[in-house]
UniProtKB/TrEMBL annotation:
All copies of domain Hydantoinase/oxoprolinase N-terminal, residue ranges: 2-176
Family matches, as InterPro entries: ACX-like_C, Hydant_A_N, Hydantoinase_A, Oxoprolinase-like
Domain called Hydantoinase A/oxoprolinase: residue spans: 197-488
Taxonomic placement: Bacteria, Bacillati, Candidatus Dormiibacterota, Candidatus Dormibacteria, Candidatus Dormibacterales
Protein known as: Hydantoinase/oxoprolinase family protein
Signal peptide: none
Domain Acetophenone carboxylase-like C-terminal: 501-671
Length: 679
């Protein structure tokens, strides 16, 4: 039995797969922010499972990102090269929005009094210019003890090229500070840029003890229930990691849950023959979107937390699926500013108190309340009827917006829905149009509790080829974990100019990185056979600061082919190329993946059921341009493959509601996916 759980801001989802029978099942319970592990254990019980029958337990969590955004990490110190104590404070001079007069720098996670310097120096090429003054560490350890430091981050200049000083420092500090979490930048990333490396190491230390405590608690609770199988955690790169690796580099869990959904979308795309996918996950708190090209999710090491036009955020230089995230979900609160302008988000009602309709004391109108007022959601079918909601509280909450706007309550609800859709369109364009991709060449895979409600309208606006609502969309991130494999990414910065580099030298470097990646995934993965390898390199024209990532697919290696691909990628991203300009390879990437047995999507049988048999009835639904229409409602579990319907219509299932608009066609494919196309 394989079980996957995903903790969201509002709900905790579980999907299980009985590998012997192929049977799958789901559960959804409210998240428990005070102790997220409680929600996980509750979900196992809600699914009717016994921990003792679970062979592999897969887990995605928000512990890391919550600890950072809520500033609930531990007291952290930084040890760095003499003269570089203030790198965290100085940061970068560039801004997200150059002309934003409200811009302010984010405060560092480590205060200045806890940033310590040590004598040592390494050159950019890895040459030791000054040996490590190991004796300096005793004074530093004494200061850390006095200050009650619980974690220490080590980041030396150019440690990506020479890690020995950091390794020596880490070993000595662990001797001097037993019980303190000590991490070094070179075990997190071997990529250059000292501010980004320092920021990443500091955040890794800041959340280290929190993640260790959480995973230990989860392991204890599951073991107490009889779990004897292996536990794996979802990484931000779309692969799985053992508890040991997750404890060592917890910052790699920063986008644990969303990465699983993207992995699942890539797997689904390969199944249905659509390898170019725009992924959208609308949950209770946020909407997340990403792009999958050629069956591979886009991976970046230029990820930033809390990135806004007026706030640079915090760089995390670890491999992360390239996600754009906005504060627009089912729990996002609608509000009116002093000038009378309507806004939706980024504040959210979360799981507690939740939308007004939950009746838990929340009185602010949310997107969920607006969908109830509009008639899109069925008040008697939340979580299949297990969650009782009060639609009159939604009307009361939205009426507050209507009174300010001078409109009817349904019109105010439609205003909220249109505005949140506009916010989501902007996010979808950020991952597609603004990066040189034409949405018409992609399909939109929408999931999450709210994805199916908004996807048809968003797909029509983007003009994607098709909108696909997979089976179990409300549990899709957890489902994606079942499709994930143990994976390790090794990154190394080493600048090589193509014209003076041989293919043999590049091949030698890639071979070493692949050896490290394979060793890591075999040690922390599930089994030792079937390791597949991928290569990529970040390239630039000489004189440029930043790079374009290029896949390296040739065997044997052909540098001319890699250069041609770089020119093409640069032209696609920036509309131009510079033939004749020297080209440099900057950072090399090797990815090792252990291929587990495939998820085994089951085809459904066309048993002759008609659409009439799935029809539950009709209800009035408000549409932006059409007003109130009597709309047919279908039960998804009763829709047979091959059925086709014309919008407007609604398809209901326990954890999601799919809305199809007028002028759109709905078809059910042989895997049970809902496929929506616009005329």
């Amino acid at each position: 039995m394989r079980v996957a759980t995903d903790i969201g801001g509002t709900f905790t989802d579980l999907v299980y797969l009985d590998e012997r029978s192929g049977r799958m099942g789901v559960a959804k319970v409210s998240s428990t922010p005070r102790d997220p592990a409680e929600g996980v254990v509750e979900a196992v019980g809600a699914a009717g499972l016994r921990a003792a029958e679970i062979g592999t337990f897969l887990h995605g969590c928000t512990v890391v990102i919550n600890a950072i955004t809520e500033r609930k990490g531990v007291r952290t110190a930084l040890v760095t090269t003499a003269g570089f104590r203030d790198v965290l404070e100085i940061g970068r001079g560039n801004r997200p929005d150059m002309y934003n007069l409200l811009y302010h720098k984010p405060p560092p996670f480590v205060p200045r009094r806890l940033r310590f310097e040590v004598g040592e120096r390494v050159g950019w090429d890895g040459a030791v210019l000054e040996p490590l003054r190991i004796e300096d560490l005793e004074t530093i350890a004494e200061a850390c003890g006095r200050e009650g430091v619980e974690a220490v981050a080590i980041c030396f200049l150019h440690a990506y090229a020479h890690a020995e000083h950091e390794e020596q420092c880490q070993a000595r500090l662990r001797e001097l500070l037993p019980g303190v979490f000590v991490t070094r930048s070179s075990e997190v990333t071997r990529e250059w840029r000292e501010f980004e490396r320092t920021s990443t190491a500091a955040m890794n230390a800041y959340v280290g003890p929190i993640v260790d405590g959480y995973l230990s608690g989860l392991e204890t609770q599951l073991s107490a229930g009889g779990l004897a199988g292996a536990i794996f955690v979802m990484q931000s790169n779309g692969g799985m990691a053992s508890l040991e690796l997750a404890r060592q580099v917890p910052i790699q869990l920063v986008e644990s849950g969303p990465a699983a959904g993207i992995t699942g979308a890539a797997e689904l795309g390969r199944l249905i023959g659509e390898e170019n996918v725009i992924y959208l996950d609308i949950g209770g708190t946020t909407a997340k979107c990403s792009l999958i090209q050629g069956g591979q999710p886009r991976i970046t090491t230029e990820y930033r937390l809390e990135h806004r036009p007026d706030y640079a955020g915090y760089p995390a230089m670890v491999p992360v699926v390239d996600i754009v995230e906005i504060g627009a979900g089912g729990g996002s609160i609608a509000w009116v500013d002093p000038a009378g302008g309507l806004h939706v988000g980024p504040r959210s009602a979360g799981a507690d108190p939740g939308p007004a309709c939950y009746g838990r004391g929340g009185d602010k109108p949310t997107v969920t309340d607006a969908e109830l007022v509009a008639g899109v959601l069925n008040p008697d079918y939340f979580l299949g009827g297990r969650l009782q909601v009060e639609p009159e509280l939604s009307w009361k909450a939205v009426a507050g917006i209507a009174s300010v706007a001078g409109s009817e309550v349904p019109a105010a609800a439609m205003g909220i829905i249109k505005l949140v859709n506009a916010n989501m369109i902007n996010a979808l364009k950020l991952v597609s149009v603004r990066r040189g991709y034409d949405p018409r060449d992609f399909v939109l895979v929408a999931c999450g509790g709210g994805g199916a409600m908004h996807a048809a309208a968003l797909g029509a606006e983007l003009r994607v080829g098709e909108v696909i609502i997979p089976q179990m969309p409300g549990h899709f991130s957890a489902l994606g974990m079942l499709a994930a494999n143990p994976q390790a990414d090794i990154v190394q910065t080493r600048i090589m100019r193509l014209e003076s580099t041989s293919a043999a030298a590049v091949e030698e470097l890639f071979a070493e990185l692949e050896r490290q990646a394979s060793a890591t995934v075999r040690r922390h993965g599930e089994g030792a056979a079937g390791v597949s390898l991928r290569r990529a390199v970040d390239m630039r024209y000489a004189g440029q600061e930043h790079t374009v990532r290029v896949a390296v697919e040739e065997a044997p290696l052909e540098l001319e082919a890699v250069e041609r691909r770089f020119h093409a990628e640069h032209r696609r991203a920036y509309t131009f190329e510079l033939p004749g300009t020297p080209v440099e390879m900057v950072t090399f990437h090797a990815t090792a993946t252990v291929r587990l047995p495939p998820l085994g999507w089951r085809e459904l049988e066309a048993d002759g059921r008609t659409a009439q048999e799935a029809l539950k009835g009709e209800r009035d639904v408000h549409f932006a341009e059409l007003g109130r229409l009597s709309t047919p409602i279908y039960e998804r579990q009763l829709l047979a493959p091959g059925l086709v319907g014309e919008g407007p219509l609604i398809v209901e299932e326990p954890a999601a509601t799919t809305l199809v608009h007028r002028g759109q066609k709905l078809a059910v494919d042989r895997w049970g996916n809902l496929r929506i196309s616009s005329s």
